[in-house]
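[#protein-structures] MJ: dropping SEPN1 here for a structure pass
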Amino acid sequence: ALTVPLPQVSRLALSGLRNWTTAASPSAVFAARHFRPFLPPRGHVELGEPWWIIPSELSVFTGYLSNNRFYPPPPKGKEVIIHRLLSMFHPRPFVKTRFAPQGAVACLTAISDFYYTVIIHAEFQLSEPPDFPFWFSPGQFTGHVILSKDATHVRDFRLFVPNHRSLNMELEALGPSVPSVILDEDGNLIDSRLPSGEPLQFVFEEIQWQQELSWEEAARRLEVAMYPFKKVTYLPFTEAFDQAKAKNKLVHSILLWGALDDHSPILALLNESFISTWSLVKELEDLQNNQENPSHQQLAGLHLEKYSFPVEMMICLPNGTVVHHINANYFLDITSMKPEDIENHVFSFSSTFEDPSTATYMQFLKEGLRRGLPLLQP
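AK: finished. structure tokens for SEPN1:
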């Protein structure tokens, strides 16, 4: 049984989702050479050093692609293999997502044959005309491939949607737009790796790896490559406020359905002056409903009071009081305006930075410091 909490969306609008009950192609044949795009660039053989298979063409600060589309553009170059693989799930995969970060990033996790860990961002459009578009957007596809150095032999390939967080996908109907997550009847996230989908097991000669990197460390490095804002240490929500109290610092908090980008002056200021955390709305809703810890309830409630879809950036005192916040949509509006058209000096541009988004976010952080530092306990 599935629970899809989209009460504002009609049954007709959900027809694309309801009719998607089986894989478009339960099996397919690929030649080993088709996996050549997963090989690293020439000379790029450092263990754990990420590279882009398909570079992202968007930044979270540069807008997004249109929702009002039914069919993906024809894939080209290295997009072809990923498009073919994802087409086994559904006939309309978009290898380039509407929102940043797009693309696919990989790193080498073992050396002998090649062993790669891959993270892919892609989404599916489930409807056909005359229905409105209906988007199914997994948080990411994660996988690995064991591939010979000349791409003549593939030992193993797996691709799945990880479910280690409380929100791992989003549904979006054109018209009403309500992010959600598919749960089973017990309220648990559905694991995309069904036991029945396990491949046949073949017996191979055991590979003797000269160097190896753990799955957890590889995933962390790939996430930093795809989400460079993670170069700052982001603590779990409640731990961030414990640290802020201990170090008498403000909390830089991001509440979101989905991430930030890489701006080195911002990262330096965050590392120096803030304790940082990022959370999903569902996680804070769970904290707010947890009667066993009133202090965590209060912290979550103060955040949710200030939250507006899709992302809210906040500066908080260690007790959870929000002293400054800005919504991502307003942020994008501000950074797209000419400096002379901005009335609120709090978000005026600085000549120090060429990038308006960097300047504006720096202003946001500095304004948070101006408001919050006098309120910290000595």
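MJ: nice. The two ends are 54 Å apart (CA to CA).
AK: one more thing. The first helix runs from residue 15 to 18.
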